[in-house]
Automatic annotation (TrEMBL):
Domain IstB-like ATP-binding span(s) in chain numbering: 10-69
Domain of life: Bacteria
InterPro entries linked to this entry: IstB_ATP-bd (IPR002611)
Organism, scientific name: Pararhizobium capsulatum DSM 1112
Name of the protein described by the UniProt record: IstB-like ATP-binding domain-containing protein
């Protein structure tokens, strides 16, 4: 299987969670026993988690910036 081009394509499409999951699963021998649907479910779960984490981090940064700006005015 052509792993690196696939990972590159996933990242180009903005699917970094899928790319990471693909990389990890590809190195695990027990993952070869998974059905296609199981792989897909793991990929989607990983991408969803990755996106939620990015949103949380962006909100935390924004909240911190607002807090710093308010703190500087006093």
């Amino acid at each position: 299987m052509l792993t690196n081009p696939t990972i590159d394509m996933l990242r180009d499409l903005g699917l970094s969670g899928l790319a990471s999951a693909y990389q990890e699963l590809d190195t695990q021998p027990e993952a070869r026993n998974l059905e296609h649907g199981e792989w897909l479910a793991l990929f989607l779960e990983r991408e969803t988690t990755s996106r939620r984490q990015k949103r949380f981090e962006a909100r935390a940064r924004a909240a911190n910036l607002r807090h710093d700006a308010q703190g500087g005015e006093h």
